[in-house]
Amino acid sequence: MKPVISIVDDDDLVRECTIDLFKSMGFAAVAFACAADFLNSDHVHGTSCLIADVQMPGMTGPELHHHLVQAGRPIPTILITAYPDDRDRARALRSGVVGYLTKPFENGDLLACVRAALGPGEPH
Predict the structure, then answer these.
(1) pLDDT band of 120, cuts 50, 70, 90
(2) Residue 97 — left, alpha, or beta (φ > 0 → left; ψ -120 to 50 → alpha)?
(3) In this structure, are residues 27 and 2 in contact, taking their beta carbons and an 8 Å threshold?
(4) Distance CA 44, CA 26 (A)
């Protein structure tokens, strides 16, 4: 079975481009406009890696990661942001996210983060 990559970002273009990238690489990918849509979906349990925007209306990417960990559903998470902040990055990495990328990022950098998140046991 293909790993499922879930993308949560309020920017339509980022969602579309990111989902297209992963589908072109042979991954199963789904996208959501906000954290609530993701949390209310059937994809939470099947997600192998989560890519979430740091700043979104409602629940932010770091808050989503924290919520999943507290709920006993830790998903390897990569945070992406157009507003980088060294303290936020350090805090996110300490909290267990596997990557923190600044938009615009290189596709190769995002793919490397996802491969690291999936680990050696997952097909990719």
Answers:
(1) confident
(2) beta
(3) yes
(4) 20
At residue 62, what is the residue type?
P
With beta carbons less than 8 A apart as the criterion, state whether 82 and 41 touch. Answer: no
Alpha-carbon Rg for the chain in angstroms: 13
Q: Domains (ranges, CATH) in the chain?
A: 4-83+99-118 (3.40.50.2300)
Query: Looking at residues 97-111, what average pLDDT do you find?
Result: 94
| Nearest residue to 28 (alpha-carbon basis) of 98, 114, 100, 113 | 114
Express each pLDDT in 53-81 by its tens digit: 999 999 999 999 999 999 999 999 999 99
